[in-house]
Amino acid sequence: MFGPAPGAGGGTLSARILEAEQQLSGQALEGSEFQRDLQRALAAPPHAISPKYFYDTEGSRLFDRICELPEYYPTRTERALLAEHAGAIAAVAGTGADLVEFGAGSCSKVRLLLPALQPRRYLPIDISTEHLVDAAVGLRREHPGLHVQPVAGDYTAALRLPDPLPGARRVGFFPGSTIGNFTPEEALQFLRGAARLLRGGGLLLGADLVKDPNVLHAAYNDAQGVTAAFNLNLLARANRELGTAFDLDRFWHSAFYNAAQQRIEMHLVSRCRQQVAVDGHSYVLEAGQALHTENSYKFSIEGLRRLAVQAGFRPGPAWTDPGNLFSVHWLHAPE
Ligand code: AVI
């Protein structure tokens, strides 16, 4: 899953951004992968597609708006936990580390940790190159002494990372409960890869907690319709990138809590019987037929710790808010 990229060393920020842009060759491939996965999802049950396709530039912008919504508690709760416990986190993670963030987006949460963690280098990884480069430039401006080396790519795929810094322990940062967007098998596989990559260091992981389904329902069905737009952007993206002609008004956003699976499910539901086409292949969607676009698993503290142990980590402290909405875990990765 993870591996070093020989020769991807230091250099100026613009050179490092160039490296990130050069890794776009991986994203060019993603265009055809998106088409193939969309065709597969439309052609036959289970009619499901990976949520990774939400995150083009527009999708990343919409996700940033979701994080500001009053109903979407995870972001502000996790931010408060990171701010409050930054010192305790640095005490277990250590200072001067080689800090790797999986799915860094706008790199906003890491800012809360930088003064306490004082990493020697920061490697933000993200699939949305444009977003990543903008974020890295902003971060470098704010922290001129920080060595920022963005890596554009899909951190769930075979990703080549720069060689570790000699003598620095690797600390991973995976906030936002993005772990919940994986299937349980993918989550285990991701954590196993991370435990190998971070040997001798550890992972700081954010995980959303099981709670009152009404709170969850509101968080994924916000009054302003931003989550609906985020969900529908998957079809808008197909129109932009694949030349499809999905009529977004013919779909509605559906999000509900599946208690048996401990997850929010998001779907795009066809409002009517309609025919759609992708690259010359047409598909009939019945009224009420759903395209499953995302799962967002919720965890108990103990459940998350069990998963981490299975993946090879030794769980350390976990921090939660007074309302038990969200959790942040330190997971030590033994040598
Ligand atoms: C990125 N991820 C953790 C978000 C979540 O809550 O599962 C994505 C999201 N989907 C709808 N709203 C936010």
UniProtKB/TrEMBL annotation:
Gene3D superfamilies assigned to the protein according to its UniProt record, in alphabetical order: Vaccinia Virus protein VP39
Keywords for this protein: Methyltransferase, Transferase
SUPFAM superfamilies given in the database record: S-adenosyl-L-methionine-dependent methyltransferases (SSF53335)
GO MF entries: L-histidine N(alpha)-methyltransferase activity
Presence of the UniProt keyword Transferase in the record: yes
GO biological process: methylation
InterPro entries listed in its UniProt record: EgtD (IPR035094), EgtD_Methyltrsf_superfamily (IPR051128), MeTrfase_dom (IPR019257), MeTrfase_EgtD-like (IPR017804), SAM-dependent_MTases_sf (IPR029063)
The EC number(s) this enzyme carries: 2.1.1.44
A Pfam family recorded for this sequence: Methyltransf_33
Residues of the Histidine-specific methyltransferase SAM-dependent domain: 34-332
Protein name, UniProt field: L-histidine N(Alpha)-methyltransferase
Biological source species: Ramlibacter pinisoli
Gene name tied to this protein: egtD
